[in-house]
Design brief:
The structure is a single chain. The protein folds into 2 domains: 162 residues, Jelly Rolls, CATH 2.60.120; 186 residues, Jelly Rolls, CATH 2.60.120.1560. The chain is built from 2 helices and 22 strands. Strand 1 and strand 2 form a beta hairpin. The two termini are 31 Å apart.
Amino acid sequence: MALATHIVKNTNKETIISVSGANDNVSLALTGLVSADQVLGATGAQAPVVNVAAVITSGTLGSSMSLRRGATGATGHLVFAGAPENSPTVQFNQYGFTENGQSDKDILVTHAGASGANVTTWVVLHKQEGYFSKVEYEQYGAYDDESQVGPLEISGSPFTAPAGLFDLPTPGSGTYETAVSLTMTSAGTPYVPGSSVTSVSSETAGLWRKKFVGNFGTSAGSGNDVTFCRTQPSYFGQADTYVGFGDQNLASENNYTLEWVGYFKAPTTGTYNFWANVDDDVYFWLGTNALDGNNTSSNGHLYTNNSTHTKNTNSATLTAGRYYPVRIQFAEYSGSENMQILWGRTSDTTAKAGSDVAGVWVHNHATRGF
């Protein structure tokens, strides 16, 4: 279908264009987008400098996108190509993508995918070298205020530029705990989670993580509308061996949700406990309740809000070598952020987190989850 384009922002320094649709391409002409003091085709001081500063895409499994300069069809200089659900973003340096003979060329965006697939791409263009925009604030620490609406303040789905335009927080970053002395005794009535399996197809290390713009609740501690992660577009899909991140405060990263899916592989047979450190909200499902469509706001193995070392109400009895489905949903509303899941057996002396034990957190890479 024909791709729809929408100019989200256009100032003398920065332009953001949204492109949506699948199985077609569209040319983004630079005429009308260049700075007022620049002239297409000119040389010297008036030569246009229109650099691709960032590309972010969202799409269904199996879809793809590419961006070329000075392109007709499959020709032209390839700037970026990837699978939106897997490699969805690229940020170039603060000067954008600068290459002789390319900064005055039109841009061709191509979306492809299976029947019914849909892809949305945001192209961030910088028109003066050295310009720092809000989308680069977290990476470079400063930005130039244009006294106009910035990309983080645009409204109106599907033309909302995702919060921050950055794949943050970084797994394992911040004040991150790896081994903690906690009360390891069993809690409540230990139970055996259902739906465990003895093998996982396309087994790959880490849980599959996605980022969402917005939250599954209205405010911290307000509950979880589990349809949010099922229906909203996601970004930055990748495998995290460090499941979570330590306490930190990312000024531009507010009002977002993260979801991890995959399996916990029990290294030995025993009674296991799980703990959470979180700011703001986290829901953790284990076993049958973690599977697609089964999780509800009330059937999680562990839920907590703004707390440290919160333990599950009931321990779980797990068998060595079996894979137990897990789903984790985290919401950040504002201020500092923190999300860690720690685990340990009643026979252990400390609770563990991150990638302390290889092969504990895994996922089916073919399906990006279970």
